[in-house]
Amino acid sequence: MKLKVAVDGKSYEVDIEVVEQETPLLGVGGYMPMPSPVRIPAPPPAAPVAAGAPVENEDKVCRSPISGIVVRVSAQSGQQIQVGDPLVVLEAMKMETNITAPIAARISKVNVAAGDSVQGGQVLVEFE
Question: What is the pTM of this model?
Answer without folding.
Answer: 0.56
